[in-house]
């Protein structure tokens, strides 16, 4: 019979009771500076999901998917194609956003997005007034 090389007290799985409490390393959330935009996984995932889900409800993409599903009588294939296309466009957005974030500050990106959306809104409003 083969015996263990360790003393019997070191082979047990119970932790020693006379040790000092261990200090847990700080989590990224705990290390975030006040006012910074550091969020955990579920915070970023949840806000992204909710924003995109609500933005896409009733959007022209959803209406087009609805019509293609009704027309083709193959809803599973339409779902696969639409989901793949949305994933691909999301990937392009993420990669482009990451590239821009390395070159432009978040404050400048927010300002540029706001100006772009205001320009689009003004253009659409102007187009409505032309009729």
Q: Can you describe this structure?
A:
The structure is a single chain. With 131 residues, the protein is an all-alpha fold. Helices cover 65% and strands 0% of the residues. The protein has five helices and no strands. It has helices at 28-31, 41-56, 60-72, 75-101, 106-130. Helix 3 runs antiparallel to helix 4. Mean pLDDT is 80; it is low at 7-12 and 28-35.
Helices, strands, pairings?
Layout: H1 28-31, H2 41-56, H3 60-72, H4 75-101, H5 106-130
Helix pairs in contact: 3-4
Structural key phrases:
flat, mainly alpha, 131 residues
Brief write-up:
This protein is mainly α and 131 residues long. It has five helices and no strands. Helix 3 (60-72) runs antiparallel to helix 4 (75-101).
Q: What coarse outline follows from CA principal-axis ratios?
A: flat
Which parts are unreliable, with pLDDT below 50 for 5 consecutive residues or more? 7-12, 28-35
Biggest sheet details:
none
Overall mean pLDDT stands at 80
Please provide the ordered H/E string of secondary-structure elements: HHHHH
Helix share bin:
55-70%
């Amino acid at each position: 019979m083969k015996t263990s090389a360790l003393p019997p007290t070191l082979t047990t799985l119970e932790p020693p009771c006379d040790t000092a409490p261990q200090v847990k390393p700080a989590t990224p959330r705990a290390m975030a500076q006040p006012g910074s935009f550091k969020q955990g996984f579920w915070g970023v995932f949840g806000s992204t999901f909710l924003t995109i889900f609500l933005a896409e409800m009733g959007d022209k993409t959803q209406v087009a998917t609805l019509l293609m599903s009704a027309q083709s009588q193959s809803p599973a294939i339409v779902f696969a194609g639409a989901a793949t296309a949305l994933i691909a466009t999301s990937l392009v957005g993420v990669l482009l956003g990451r590239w821009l974030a390395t070159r432009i500050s978040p404050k400048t990106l927010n300002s540029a997005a706001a100006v772009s959306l205001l320009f689009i809104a003004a253009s659409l409003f102007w187009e409505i007034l032309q009729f």
